[in-house]
Amino acid sequence: MSPTCTIPYEVLLEIYNTTHHPVTMQVQRREDGEQAGPVIYLHEGESISLVLTAGVAYKYAIKQPPREAELSVKIWSDTQCSLVDVFKAPSSPQRRYNHSGIIVTEGIIVSSKAFPSPSPPRQPVSATAPLSSETG
């Protein structure tokens, strides 16, 4: 058996906004979202490269109103993440799941998503229906 490296090393996480709209991204410093880090604004086509410690868990809130997603990241090598993959519908046939959420790529999981609820269909109002049952 070969020895395992116990020295921390850095890896690069590249996040690309491949959607057609701007997104915001924010580091979540604690599990409950309190003490969140600065907000990063990415226009369509922009990207950000983050230097992370390999094997350490990170959480990021990604928002593109009205959609939101929380990414759980724990990577061991340089990794790329396309935000269009993050926001794909959960029913997409190429989606892979584990106990924590939807797998975007090795080491990156969408742990929660929020989409607006569709509005209930409105009931048509008949213009010829009587407004009152009283007759005179």
How would you describe what is shown here?
The protein is mainly β and 136 residues long. The chain has one helix at 83-86, and strands at residues 10-16, 23-27, 39-42, 47-53, 58-64, 67-73, 79-82, 96-98, 101-105, 108-114. It contains one helix and ten strands. The strands form two sheets. It has a seven-stranded antiparallel beta sheet with strand order 3-2-5-6-10-9-8, with no helix packed on it. The protein has a three-stranded mixed beta sheet with strand order 4-1-7. Strand 8 and strand 9 form a beta hairpin. It is 3% helix and 41% strand.
**Count the helices. How many?**
1
Give the low-confidence spans: none
Strand content: 35-45%
Helix content: under 10%
Radius of gyration over C-alpha positions, nearest whole angstrom: 22 Å
Q: Structural class, from secondary structure content?
A: mainly beta
Mean of the pLDDT scores? Answer: 78
Largest sheet: 7 strands, antiparallel
- Spatially, the strands of the biggest sheet line up as 3-2-5-6-10-9-8
How many β strands by DSSP?
A: 10
Considering the chains and any ligands shown, give keywords for the structure:
seven-stranded antiparallel beta sheet; 136 residues
Topology:
Layout: E1 10-16, E2 23-27, E3 39-42, E4 47-53, E5 58-64, E6 67-73, E7 79-82, H1 83-86, E8 96-98, E9 101-105, E10 108-114
Parallel strand pairs: 1-7
Antiparallel strand pairs: 1-4, 2-3, 2-5, 5-6, 6-10, 8-9, 9-10
